[in-house]
Amino acid sequence: MQKTFYQKELLIKATQQRKGLNNNKKDIEKIQSWLNLFATQNPNAGTATGIDGDFGPATEKAVLNFQKFNGLSQTGTVDQKVFDVLAAPLKKAFEDPIPGNNLRDLIVNTAKSHLKNHPFELVINNQSNSGPWVRSYMDNHEGTDWFWCMGFVQAIIDQAASVQGKNFKTLMPLTYSCDTVGVTGIQKKLLTRFQTARTNPALIKPADVFLIQKTTNDWFHTGIVTAVHGDLIETIEGNTNSDGSHNGNAVMNRIRNYKQSKIDFFSIESLVV
Question: Which parts of the sequence belong to the Peptidoglycan binding-like domain (predicted)?
Fold first, then answer.
């Protein structure tokens, strides 16, 4: 794999605890982030707390609640073993075996694996587009200006391609920009424009990358096509929400009508062959 920053998100340097001599602000922020991410899926667990890098009484109580909820010893401290449980969704998304007989299947199934582990951004230091999932997709970049939909797409393609020993950068450059991938598609003749896609849906295939146009050579959102149904495409996309925003907060499975939107399609076929 080319995008491996996620591995650093799975580790803390030392046991973290209230008034601990080895406390580390970044590690405590990681712990607080995962406590909050756990709360989004388990709102009754009592693990939502501030993300400030300070292991105070509120963080200690949130840790105790997390340990109780998961049947762990209630110590109020977080060593690597406890952190492994906290960060398990990220490890599963990036490292669980992915089934698939070909690259297209692998890409779709990788996207589904991430989806079921609930990638979600956080607001840290008043900055949206933050947290361990965003940093993993964006190679340690985070913050309000770092839209992460393309980072998600490339992480999925990279992970799937690596199963077959392929480098996704032979298909497109490492980038966080929809425009860069769109222009690459034009240059390599891999981009099907929306006008053509509307008249010839057979050109759209699962695992291709959709790019929503703002203007002819300006795209503002992307994701993975997982299925085509008549006038509709089914997608898995990051940095979105229930309204289909290009700056939402989650990875979601969405339905889009490609015949009513200016959606271009970047073919991954050259990586498949």
Answer: 26-86
CA distance 163 to 147: 27
Classified as helix, coil or strand, 49 is: coil
**Residue pair 96/115 in contact by the 8 Å Cβ criterion:** no
Q: How far is CA 96 from CA 71, 167, 245, in A?
A: 23, 19, 29
Residues 210 and 52: their CA atoms lie apart, in Å, by: 37
CB 22 within 8 A of CB 41: no
Q: Which CATH number fits domain 10-86: 1.10.10.10, 1.10.101.10, 3.40.50.970, 2.70.70.10?
A: 1.10.101.10
Coil vs helix vs strand at 193:
coil
Closest among 59, 73, 74, 51 to 19, alpha carbons compared:
59
Give the pTM.
Answer: 0.97
pLDDT band at residue 273 using 50, 70 and 90 as cut-offs: confident
The residue to which tokens 């271009």 are assigned? 264
| Residue 99: half-sphere exposure toward Cβ, Cα within 13 Å | 1
Q: How many CA atoms lie within 13 A of 23 on its CB side?
A: 17
**pLDDT of 164 strictly over 90:** yes
